[in-house]
Write a structure and sequence with these properties.
By secondary structure, the chain is mainly alpha-helical. The chain has helices spanning about 1-10, 10-30, 35-45, 50-75, 85-95, 100-135, 140-155, 160-175, 200-215, 240-260, 265-280, 290-315, 320-330, 340-345, 345-380, 385-405, 405-425, 430-455, 460, 465-490; strands spanning about 175-180, 185.
């Protein structure tokens, strides 16, 4: 692990990570351009890099994208990312009081603490979960993937039915191409380039980048008005640090715990941590009026989810959110699949992920303190009619350069249209892309399990870890249904 850290710090990987961090911060700071977009845009660029430099770049964009969201939340009362919604509650009132510098400084400190605690949990918990997963067979993997699917379906959107429809659509698209076991072609319609299946990277770029650009075009002439205010008094006092210490730890750990659960993510952690900080405060009435503890809780919590989301990603190969789904795609195009054997088969890449989270977090803190706190708010002034065409060209050129295929560009465009329509219908994209990426693996594990058992489902109930995932899956599906029934009963009463 030390060698990997030295490699990142002494090679071109650090330079590429810096690019990823800066791009992530810019995309995070501008409402509508999220961390997911930053990561997806950079994947084609990392195609020719080695695994260490590639992951360093993508992790840098991930950390930077999640971190940049608090800039517009504080300055405009508009979160740059969904994970910074609760930051608006106290960040913007502080800015209105002439304390934008203090609010931004608290956001930087909280982001750094949350990221570091998430990193510590990642390097401690991921090996434990990987060791457990080494005993997994086809039944356990199948049950684990099923849990990941259902978690994203039930928690990734407001409507579980819409989530289910999108997940089934993703599974359907994953079946296009040759049969991984039988070798027969499926739904290719005589088209040669579909024999290998629908390439998930163009699909990913289309769903999350191209579709978002189409959506933003509707208000392309909108400009954000950034208030002119002197950025000063950015550092927290010793008293503020002491008072914030329990909040730092509590919010970061809550963020890690929530990040581990597939489909929930930083937005939920943002609200939960804010709520818990308010309940623990001696002056809860001051929340929403410019209490720095609200900013601490919101930002430490959503950064803790970074380390948390990477735990099932590296140990089980299950992405918990849109960004880790994009990271999975970035690894798979290099022929690397995270999972229980990740540490033995690709230790350099695994340690690169570990160390990249730490180094990227430190870079974010340094960049924001030195220049970003004054410069990045200016990014909000870039007109959309200039920014959006540049992003679109980058996305399509990057798609072409991965395999020099015009067909993949068309896949990105078609998926962009589909993603745009899904946005209009309020259909969640996360279930679709996750099931599309992991659909083939699920099919192979399921068919292998059925072959071993002679078509019997009994081993799912007799093998301990498989049974555990089955139980968790049932609870995941049942919990929202029970909650809705309770709400309906209360409404009727």
């Amino acid at each position: 692990m030390l060698q990997s850290l030295i490699a990142i710090l002494t090679t071109s990987a650090l330079f590429y990570m810096l690019i990823g961090v800066v791009l992530g911060l810019i995309f995070g700071a501008i409402p509508g351009l999220t961390a997911t977009l930053a990561v997806v845009l950079l994947i084609p660029i990392t195609y020719t890099m080695d695994a260490t430099a590639g992951m360093a770049t993508l992790i840098g964009a991930y950390v930077g994208g999640i971190s940049g969201g608090f800039v517009s939340a504080i300055m405009l009362n508009m979160p740059g990312t969904p994970a910074s919604v609760a930051t608006c509650f106290d960040g913007f009132p502080l800015a209105q009081q002439g304390k934008a510098g203090k609010a931004l400084g608290v956001g930087i400190a909280s982001s750094l603490v949350g990221s570091v605690i998430g990193w510590l949990c990642l390097i401690v918990l991921a090996p434990v979960l990987s060791n457990i997963a080494l005993s997994f067979g086809a039944f356990e993997y199948c049950a684990a993937l099923l849990f990941g699917f259902t978690a994203v379906i039930t928690l990734g959107g407001k409507s579980p039915i819409k989530g289910l429809i999108c997940a089934l659509l993703g599974l359907t698209l994953s079946l296009v191409g040759y049969d991984a076991i039988g070798g027969m072609s499926r739904a290719t319609y005589g088209t040669a380039f579909l024999m290998g299946g629908i390439a998930y990277m163009p699909a990913l770029i289309g769903l999350f980048v191209v579709s978002e650009i189409f959506s933003q075009i509707e208000n392309i002439h909108e400009r954000y008005v950034v208030p002119k205010q002197e950025i000063k008094d950015i550092f927290m006092s010793r008293k503020e640090l002491k008072e914030s210490f329990p909040n730092f730890i509590r919010s970061s750990l809550i963020g890690v715990a929530i990040g581990i659960l597939p489909g929930i993510g930083g937005t939920f952690a943002n609200f939960v941590c804010y709520d818990q900080a308010k309940k623990a405060s001696k002056d809860p009435d001051s929340f929403g009026k410019g209490n720095i503890q609200g900013v601490v809780a919101a930002e430490a919590g959503n950064k803790g989810t970074i380390g948390g989301a990477l735990i099932p990603f590296v140990s089980l190969g299950i992405p918990g959110d849109m960004v880790t789904a994009a990271l999975l795609g970035g690894l798979m195009i290099k022929g690397i699949t995270p999972g229980p054997l990740f540490a033995t088969e690709q230790p350099e890449t695994l340690y690169a992920i570990y160390n990249s989270v730490l180094v990227a977090s430190l870079l974010v803190g340094a960049i924001m303190l030195l220049v970003g706190i004054r410069v990045f708010p200016l990014a909000l002034r870039i007109p959309k009619h200039i920014l959006l065409p540049v992003v679109l060209i980058m996305a399509l050129v990057g798609t072409y350069n991965m395999n020099f295929s015009v067909n993949e560009v068309w896949i990105a465009v078609v998926m962009g249209v589909i993603g745009f329509l899904m946005g209009k219908l309020q259909m969640p994209k996360t279930p679709m892309i996750i099931t599309m990426i992991l659909g083939r693996s699920f099919e192979v594990y399921f068919r292998t399990a059925m072959t071993y058992s002679g078509g019997s489902f009994v081993p799912f109930l007799t093998r301990p870890y498989a049974l555990l995932f089955v139980v968790i899956t049932i609870v995941t599906i049942a919990a929202p249904c029970i909650q809705k029934l309770r709400k309906a009963k209360k409404a009727a009463a």
